[in-house]
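Feature request disguised as a bug: please show the residue count (151) next to DUF5683 domain-containing protein in the output. Example input:
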Amino acid sequence: MNRNPFEKLMWSIALPGFGQYLNGKYFKGTVLLILEFLINVQANFNQVILLSFHGEIGDAIKHAEYQWLMFYPCLYFFSMWDAVKDAGGGKDPYSFLPYVFAAFFVTVGLIFSSNLMILGVLLGPVWLPILFVFPGIIIGFITREIIKNIP
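Example output, currently without the count:
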């Protein structure tokens, strides 16, 4: 079996559960795939993405079911971390931190996505959470390094 953690990460980014399938974790992959489908449908996520890509942010906000959409970041980043871990990556005991902080920051971005404007532009439930991924990952890596270097 191919144990390339980067490949498993990329497949998990494509769709939660695919990295687990490639790792031979079929039950876990199926559960994650079903959860992704359930959350996606209940949150109207595909419609929200389509509207956001067309620049119709107001309509995207109206169509988003935030109670369901709030589950997506944790599912998404857990799937990525788990696939990488099972493929032999992330041997560091704190390798989960960038994923946790990214999920947290994306969730915070989602919470404020209906009213936070950046440079006078309302980014909505797709673009603002995507922007919040980057500080989450950076802070996660910094926190991991700080914790690893505590004597």
